[in-house]
Amino acid sequence: MVAMKRKAIALLSGGLDSQLVVKLMLGQGIELFALNFYSAFHVPSKAAEKAAEKFGINLKKVDFTDQLLAAVKNPKYGHGSGMNPCVDCRIIEFTYAKNYMKEVGAEFVVSGEVLGSRPMSQRMAPLKAIVADSGLDGYILRPLSAKLLPPTIPEKEGWVDREKLLDIQGRSRQPQMFWAKELNLGEYPSPAGGCLLTEKVFAVRLRDLLERKPDPARRDLDLLSIGRHFFSSEGIRIVIPRREEEDVKLRKMLQRDDLVLELKDYLGPIALLPDKNASRQTLEEAGTLLSRFSKTRDLDKVIIKYAQGEVEVSPSKAPQLELQLSRV
Ligand code: SF4
C-alpha cells in the first residue's frame, strides 16, 4: 500500500528562507500548499509566484490589508522601528493558515522564520506568542531553526525527520546561502525591502494619514508610497511624482473626484489632489509646487491647466511656499 503524503501549509514570500523551507519539506515527501500574503503595505513582487512555479506547488495569494491595518492601528504586541506590528502580523498570517489547513486537509504549517534574525518577531518570546495566539500550538514547524526549538507535533509524530532539519540562528545570511548551495536550490531573489511599514518616511506618512483620516480607503494607502506629499494651506493633500515611473503609476490611480494639474505648454509630471473641490488658493499652491518640480522651475510665469480651467503661477515663489506648507 502506498503511504499517503502528509500535507502542510507553507508561508511563502519567495525569498531565500521560504524557498529553503519548501525545498526541505519537499525533500521529506511533504505535499505543500503555499500561502502568500500581500497588502497595500507591501512592495509588489512576483517572487512567490516564481518560487511556487519552480517547485511545482499550489499557491494561494491573500490580500490582508484590512487585518494588517487594524493591527497597525492597535497592535497587541506593539510596533517595530516603524509602523510595523510584526508579531500581530505573523499572528494574522498563521491564523489564516490554520483555517486554510482545514480547507485543504493539511496537518501543520511551515515557515521560514529564523531564530534571532529580526529584532521583533523572531526572538523566542514572540515566536511563542505567535504560536499561542494563532491557536496552532505544536503545529508550526520552523525548519530553518527547528533543532534549536522545542520539537513540534510533526517531529514528535515522525511526519518529518527532525534530524534533517536545520539549526540556523542570528542575522547572518551565510548559513542560508550555504544550504542553498548544498540543497541545489537554484536561483533565489536577493533580499529586498518588502514591507513599507518598516520604512521611516512611510511610517511618518501613515501616522499622519491615520490622524487626518482614521479609516482610510485603499487608495489613500496606495498613494502614500508615491512621490512628494504636501498639504495646502487649507489642508488638501498634493502629490507630485518624483520620477517618470511614479508619474505613470499615479496617472493609473486617478479617480473621478481627483483634481489633476498639468503644465500647459511643457511636458512634465502631474500633481494630484484627491479633492476636486479645492479652493483657488490650493490650486495656486499646488500649481506653484508643480512648476518648481518640473523643467519650468527657472521661468517667471507658468500656466497650469486643470479640468475646469487654468491658473498662472510663479515657480520663483515655490521654495518659499514649500517651506510654508506642511510636508510629509
Ligand atoms: S515586516 Fe511587515 S510584513 Fe513583515 S512581519 Fe512585520 S509587519 Fe508583517
Verbal overview:
The protein is built from 12 helices and 12 strands. The longest helix has 19 residues, at 86-104. It folds into 2 domains: 7-182, Rossmann fold (3-Layer(aba) Sandwich); 226-327, no CATH class. Strand 2 (31-38), helix 2 (47-55) and strand 3 form a beta-alpha-beta unit. The strands form 3 sheets. Strands 3-2-1-4-5 form a 5-stranded parallel β-sheet, with helices on both faces. Strands 9-8-10-11 form a 4-stranded antiparallel β-sheet, with helices on one face. The mean pLDDT is 93. The radius of gyration is 24 Å and the shape is elongated. It is of the alpha/beta class. The site of iron/sulfur cluster has 9 residues, from helix 4.
Give a short synopsis of this structure:
By secondary structure, the chain is α/β, with parallel strands linked by helices. Helix content is 37%, strand content 16%. The protein is built from twelve helices and twelve strands.
Cα(first) to Cα(last) distance is 65 Å
CATH superfamily of the largest domain: HUPs
The total strand number stands at: 12
Question: For the record, what CATH class of the largest domain applies?
Answer: Alpha Beta
**What percentage of residues falls in helices of 4 or more residues?**
25-40%
Radius of gyration: 24 Å
Low-pLDDT residue intervals, each spanning 5 or more residues: none
Structural class by SSE content: alpha/beta
Beta-strand content estimate: 15-25%
Question: What is the helix/strand order?
Answer: EHEHEHHEHEHHHHEEHEEHEEHE
What's the mean pLDDT score?
93
Q: Helical segment tally?
A: 12
| Largest sheet: number of strands, sense, barrel closure | 5 strands, parallel
Bound molecules: iron/sulfur cluster
Query: What is the fold named in CATH at topology level of the largest domain?
Result: Rossmann fold
Structural shape: elongated
Strand order of the largest sheet: 3-2-1-4-5
